[in-house]
Amino acid sequence: MLALLAGGLALTLTACGDGGGADDAKPALKVTTGYVPQPVGHDMAAGFFVVTNKGGADRLTSVTSPLAAEVTLHSTKDGEMREQDSFAVPAHGRLDFARGGNHLMFERLRHTPKRGETVTVTLHFAKSGAVKAVLPVKETTYQPPSAGDTQDKQ
């Protein structure tokens, strides 16, 4: 009986692991589908993108850009915009910055970006460090295709 209990305990400890799960793995980040809508004013702009992570968890802690004196992180929930200190990037998941949700705010613009230009941003992550991305400036009303849309639809 004691041998069975000891064997069961060994199996239980093995199943629990040593904490070396997906959250401890190195993050593998990729920034895609980014854009900045051409702003209608001269002092602020918004930015959107997707961070895809094929590795362990990370955290977006800040963003900088030569476009603006300050870039802040925001979430929108129930129509209310709130500044955030950081955003979790889940292990083997994604972090979306999209209209009506999470977004960047470029504040105190150094110049007003126009459609056709690009905006360079540096995303700062807790584990991955700095990741640069180039966001094209799109028309003010631009809406990216949804994941279910295809380019060949007519």
Task: Describe the protein's architecture and organization.
The protein has one helix spanning 2-16, and strands spanning 29-37, 44-53, 58-64, 68-77, 80-84, 87-89, 94-97, 103-109, 118-125, 129-138. It has 154 residues and is mainly β. Strands 1, 2, 3, 4, 5, 6, 7, 8, 9 and 10 form a 10-stranded mixed β-sheet that branches. The protein is globular, with a radius of gyration of 21 Å. Mean pLDDT is 85; it is low at 1-20 and 150-154.
Would you spell out the secondary-structure blueprint of this structure?
Blueprint: H1 2-16, E1 29-37, E2 44-53, E3 58-64, E4 68-77, E5 80-84, E6 87-89, E7 94-97, E8 103-109, E9 118-125, E10 129-138
Parallel strand pairs: 1-10
Antiparallel strand pairs: 1-2, 2-7, 2-8, 3-6, 3-9, 4-5, 4-8, 9-10
Could you tell me the mean pLDDT?
Answer: 85
Output the number of helix runs. Answer: 1
- From N to C, what is the helix and strand string? HEEEEEEEEEE
Overall morphology: globular
Report Rg. Answer: 21 Å
| First-last Cα distance | 71 Å
Q: Could you list the spans in which at least 5 consecutive residues all have pLDDT below 50?
A: 1-20, 150-154
State the share of residues found in helices, binned by percent: under 10%
Structural class: mainly beta
Query: What share of residues are in beta strands?
Result: over 45%
Total strands? 10
> Main β-sheet, in a few words?
10 strands, mixed
Write a short abstract of this structure.
Helix content is 10%, strand content 47%. The protein is built from 1 helix and 10 strands; from the N terminus they run αββββββββββ.
